[in-house]
Task: inverse folding
């Protein structure tokens, strides 16, 4: 018997300012669904998520949730009114007896529940919003770019938590590795419509390209048919006094069909222009040491960057990645050591804080008032890689329309702001690119293009990113900043760093023999330290129940498959039961191994 869907949306239509975001859109979310919601920036993904969450009303259509279903939405910009601390906000939907959940999630997401709301950064607020959702544990979670502002360790924690949840979730993310690991179905928002494929994001690009190929083929066939019918209509004027009006009307219908087709949005016309060739040796650092407020950023750090290198800096938030790059660029003085630059360096910087953009002025003004881009005597033109170009034409290359050109920057989405910053960056000639979190908010197609451009760029790239897939595709060298001043240089990208680090990990040193114990002094007994974190203790407590449940499910599936006629009588049911049995056996083995590891650590 088919299970009722968790949520069903039917014939949704929504219009902003005369332009439809989507029209007659329908979708179904099934129990246990792990869905990637994908589409170009501006396609309406976040808007659709808000409609599903009940935070925005569509013009037409219905959203029906299963009885008793709780739907949780991770707010992008939570107000937090009436909450003194981030922890107060994260626990605001919980029973006081369950407030401990916030502490467990806070440890994994690396935010301080005691942090005053008034002084919390945007990233801290977003982490608190994510913590609120994870602690509440709704039946359906709607996660809009949850990995933004998380470092790689926190992303790994979130990935593990979501992989173990029983709840369904819909996920918007630019992080390929995150999507590949978690999703089993894909919803593709494209030109106001939603397509579904019951495969994870790993198969999305092949599916998308095949769909576009079929679409192009159908368009080609339609154009050929219109051309043939038009030729008949023209020739019929001289060949016959009376034309077949039915065929003429059919030709009109074909032309109307072609006119109604919505053209696919192209990719941004992005390009990096290399400046003068730099010297072969770009940056040489010897014996760098730096500390702030008693916290060591690096010590005894050496690095040589040569022309054409792509150097990625990875590590937890706050470990000092940006500070190290500023030392290498000469913007921050080291406490010890020296930095030497090569010749002819022309440096261009992409700032993750978007500080180069004035949110209160228009896109037009953000470009034309930049001294490095202004064209003397021509207020409507900017200098793009040494050539004057009309500001509207240049912005169109980055997929902005004419109405947006005079709009304030604050009205743009996160992805649009990233594209505007890239437009400024790419107008300059450079031979050293510094990219601080460039992948945040960009859609997959733009990320693909950016990756290709960096591969062709003749200069040197310094990259800070938490996107593991992007680092793997771009970096030739990875500098891992692990805290305590430790910064280690590894060849290759993220996966290469992880494999080399595992190989280099020293074997556990033997414990020294204990000296002969003296007669103990009378003192209060101390509780034994388990060596487990808060999250690990809670996980150890819940694993026996998880193992028992998996064993029970395996028993039921094995009983079902014991029927010798099941395969011939119900082959689909047999196949699904087989897949479910394999999945649960794998989960059981993983849960038992995790329990053993935690027990050993606790001991």
Result:
């Amino acid at each position: 018997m088919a299970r009722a869907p968790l949520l069903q949306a039917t014939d949704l239509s929504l219009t902003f300012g005369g332009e439809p975001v989507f029209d007659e859109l329908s979708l179904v979310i099934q129990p246990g669904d792990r869905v990637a919601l994908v589409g170009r920036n501006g396609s309406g993904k976040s808007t659709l998520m808000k409609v599903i969450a009940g935070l925005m009303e569509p013009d037409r259509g219905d959203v029906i949730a299963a009885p008793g279903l709780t739907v949780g939405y991770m707010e992008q910009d939570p107000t937090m009114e009436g909450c003194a601390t981030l922890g107060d906000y994260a626990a605001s939907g919980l029973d006081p007896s369950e407030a401990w959940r916030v502490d467990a999630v806070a440890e994994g997401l690396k935010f301080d529940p005691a942090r005053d709301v008034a002084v919390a950064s945007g990233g801290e607020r977003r982490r608190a919003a994510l913590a609120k959702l994870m602690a509440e544990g709704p039946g359906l979670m709607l996660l809009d770019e949850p990995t933004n502002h998380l470092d790689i360790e926190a992303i790994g924690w979130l990935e593990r938590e979501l992989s173990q949840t029983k709840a369904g979730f819909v996920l918007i993310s630019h992080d390929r590795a995150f999507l590949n690991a978690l999703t089993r179905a894909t919803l593709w928002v494209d030109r106001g419509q939603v397509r579904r494929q019951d495969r994870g994001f790993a198969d999305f690009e092949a599916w998308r390209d095949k769909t576009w190929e079929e679409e192009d083929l159908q368009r080609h066939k339609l154009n050929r048919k219109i051309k043939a019918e038009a030729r008949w209509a023209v020739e019929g004027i001289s060949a016959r006094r009376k034309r077949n009006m039915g065929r003429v009307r059919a030709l009109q219908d074909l032309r109307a069909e072609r006119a109604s087709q919505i053209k696919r949005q192209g990719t941004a016309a992005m390009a990096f222009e290399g400046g003068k060739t730099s010297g072969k040796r770009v940056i040489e650092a010897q014996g760098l040491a730096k500390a702030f407020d008693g916290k060591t950023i690096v010590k005894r750090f050496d690095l040589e960057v040569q022309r054409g290198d792509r150097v990625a800096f990875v590590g937890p938030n706050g470990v000092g990645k940006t500070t190290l790059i500023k030392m290498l660029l000469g913007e921050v003085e080291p406490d010890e050591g020296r930095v030497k630059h090569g010749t002819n360096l022309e440096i261009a910087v992409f700032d993750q804080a978007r500080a180069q953009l004035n949110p209160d002025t228009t896109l037009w003004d953000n470009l034309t008032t930049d001294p490095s881009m202004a064209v003397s005597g021509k207020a409507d033109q900017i200098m793009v890689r040494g050539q004057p170009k009309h500001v509207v034409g240049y912005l169109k290359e980055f997929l902005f329309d004419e109405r947006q050109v005079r709009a304030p920057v604050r009205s743009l989405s996160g992805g649009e702001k990233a594209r505007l910053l890239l437009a400024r960056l790419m107008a300059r000639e450079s031979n050293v690119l510094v990219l601080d979190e460039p992948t945040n908010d960009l859609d997959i197609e733009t990320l693909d293009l950016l990756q290709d451009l960096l591969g062709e760029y003749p200069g040197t790239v310094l990259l800070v990113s938490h996107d593991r897939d992007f680092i793997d595709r771009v970096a030739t060298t990875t500098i891992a900043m692990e805290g305590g001043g430790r910064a280690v240089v590894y060849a290759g990208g993220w996966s290469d760093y992880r494999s080399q680090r595992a190989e280099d990990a020293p074997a556990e040193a033997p414990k020294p023999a204990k000296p002969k114990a003296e007669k103990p002094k009378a003192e209060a007994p101390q509780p034994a330290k388990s060596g487990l974190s808060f999250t690990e203790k809670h996980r150890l407590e819940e694993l026996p129940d998880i193992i028992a449940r998996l064993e029970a499910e395996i028993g039921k599936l094995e009983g079902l498959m014991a029927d010798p006629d099941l395969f011939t009588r119900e082959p689909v049911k047999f196949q699904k039961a087989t897949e479910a049995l394999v999945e649960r056996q794998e989960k059981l083995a993983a849960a038992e191994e995790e329990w053993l590891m935690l027990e050993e650590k606790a001991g």
Q: What stands out?
A: The chain has five domains: 1-70+138-199, 80-136, 217-260, 273-503, 534-602. Residues 350 and 420 are 11 Å apart (CA to CA). Residues 80-136 form one domain. The longest helix spans residues 204-239.
